[in-house]
Design a protein that fits this description.
With about 350 residues, the protein is an all-alpha fold. About 65% of the residues lie in helices and about 0% in strands. It is globular, with a radius of gyration of 20 Å.
């Protein structure tokens, strides 16, 4: 809104030219997101407490988690507010990629909200069934995939890091591929959200990394120099990424150990889906496996644990996802969290380094 309000006035007041600069708007989207978190955070937490939206802790998990019983959840509402409001303020709202990303943010947020609301407010321990959640996730992601497929301005090629001349055209298989990326990222972040600040830290790091990818993908000179696909209009996604970084840092203020509030599915499903759709729109889907390596490891630990127990009758880990395995081995929760953040930073640097390895 600010972009559309002030930029047209730049011909009369030169200082307003600053609104055309993507870097300026990205920085202030980040700052605005932080302010929104600090202003709305305490109020939303009080409202959640009033609704008795409190986390129910599994009795079969680590004993140290029992003291977290009753902590407010659904704090993802803070994060979503701190992403959506700055995006509406600072982004170019004529950009279709902004609206596609907001569609996933809101849509996946609603899925998570309904699941959380049924569980913690209505005291329905089952919430949405796994099938119901998967149905809606696939439907929304599939809608984005179909839109991009029929859009002549978007190509269906898959760009593989380290190989500058290997670009297989997915054709009709682009639709299930995009759906898999968005749904997979959403559920991987959801599985990671098990310790105070464990998920939001890597999410903010991933968002910062894709902020750089988005800026380069939308920049004709930089994308040509680095030999990565140029996606006209994708640079505007840097504003959403900046808002995600600010929202992540702001939420971490309340979610750091010991947490005052948990994000719940309303936050984790939405944030994961957002990372997935941004990876698709910037044509850097494969790099999400590297940058989001922690999310991948967490998801695989659950898959391997379930598969091993089903077919071999034995568990690989003491408990899955893998962060619980380390807890049961006696590693302190804050140490696990910070180490996972460190690993994510290293993986982000590796992903960024691929820009010069093509």
């Amino acid at each position: 809104m600010l972009f559309h309000l002030f930029y047209p006035l730049a011909s009369n007041l030169k200082i307003l030219n600053i609104f055309k600069y993507l870097t300026f708007r990205t920085i202030y989207a980040m700052i605005t997101a932080l302010i929104v978190c600090f202003v709305l955070g305490p109020w939303i937490i009080r409202k959640l407490e009033g609704l008795q939206a409190r986390q129910v802790i599994r009795t079969d998990g680590p004993e140290s988690h029992l003291e977290k019983q009753g902590t407010p959840t659904m704090g993802g509402l803070i994060i979503l507010s701190a992403i959506i409001l700055p995006t509406l303020l600072w982004a170019d709202l004529t950009n279709v990629y902004i609206w596609l990303t907001l569609f996933i943010i809101v849509g996946y947020g609603l899925i998570g909200f309904m699941d959380d609301y049924l569980k913690v407010v209505k005291k329905n321990t089952k919430g949405l069934s796994a099938r119901q959640k998967m149905f809606w996730q696939v439907l929304l992601a599939g809608g984005v995939a179909v839109f991009l497929y029929i859009n002549p301005g978007f190509n269906e090629m898959l760009y593989v890091p380290f190989f500058k001349n290997f670009h297989p055209d997915l054709g009709i298989f682009f639709i299930p591929f995009v759906t898999l990326v968005i749904v997979g990222a959403s559920n991987a972040v959801n599985l990671t959200d098990g310790l105070d600040g464990l998920a939001i830290g890597p999410v903010a790091i991933n968002a910062a990394t894709y902020m750089l990818f988005a800026y380069i993908a939308g920049h004709a000179t930089l994308s040509a120099y680095l030999q990565i696909p140029r996606v006209v209009g994708a640079g505007e996604l840097a504003v959403i990424c900046g808002a995600m970084v600010g929202a992540g840092l702001g939420f971490l203020w309340f979610n750091s150990y010991p947490a005052e509030v948990f994000m719940g599915d309303v936050g984790s499903l939405s944030l994961g889906g957002t990372l997935g759709v941004i990876a698709v729109l910037t044509k850097q889907e494969i790099l999400l496996v590297i940058v989001g390596g922690i999310f991948v490891i967490e998801a695989l630990s659950v898959i391997f644990q379930v598969g091993s127990y089903k077919y071999r009758g034995k568990r690989i880990f003491r408990m899955a996802p893998i962060h619980h395995h380390f807890e049961l081995k006696g590693v302190a929760e804050p140490k696990i969290i910070v180490r996972f953040w460190i690993i994510t930073i290293i993986l982000a640097l590796v992903a960024i380094s691929t820009l010069k390895m093509r």
